[in-house]
Amino acid sequence: MFEFFSVKETLTATMILFAVIDIVGSIPIIVGLKKKFGKIEAERATIVAGILMIAFLFIGNNILKLIGVDVNSFAIAGAFVIFIIAIEMILGIEIQKNAESKSASIVPIAFPLIAGAGTLTTTLSLRAEYHDINIIAGIILNTIFVYLVLKSANWLENKLGDGTLQVLQKVFGIILLAISIKLFTANFAQLFSTYVKF
């Protein structure tokens, strides 16, 4: 397996996953979640997200086939989740209630924020072009960076004022909304072309 290791492939896979995960763009969400839940379990969120991505790389297609769901339908479901998070950010409302939870770790940080439908489907598409070892290395590098961002939540909260955070939250909310719409339309078009024959 290690004989196929390539620095170039690893860097490419890392950059693609970095763009899809967009943890830097998620900073306003992370700070908002920290305020909402009181604390973020960075280690737990990072480990779960990393395991989800690596596991999905190998058994993603099999799992989806087992439950009778195709990748496009899975991505559309993820688009709806991202859409709801975006609406919450833009309008400043609370759609999903988490009164009993004392921390944000697995949901919504590990899934769908880090290892969301977009990220998981991207890992599957990367497998068609790159060797597994390079994709795994890319996932590990991204999870390390994610961990550093999550651990810096307190510092980020102090450095960024409430006004700046509110502006950033709305801006990134609109970006997330655009991503959700793009994810929906692209995968809906695929489903439409697959099931509707002229």
UniProtKB/TrEMBL annotation:
PANTHER family with a match to the protein in the record: UPF0056 MEMBRANE PROTEIN YHCE
Protein known as: UPF0056 membrane protein
Coiled coil: none
Transmembrane segments: 12-33, 45-67, 73-93, 105-127, 133-150, 171-192
Keywords linked to the UniProt accession: Cell membrane, Membrane, Transmembrane, Transmembrane helix
Classification via Pfam families: MarC
Membrane topology: Multi-pass membrane protein
Principal localisation: membrane
UniProt family annotation: Belongs to the UPF0056 (MarC) family.
InterPro entries named in the record: Multi_antbiot-R_MarC
Domain of life: Bacteria
Compartment(s): Cell membrane
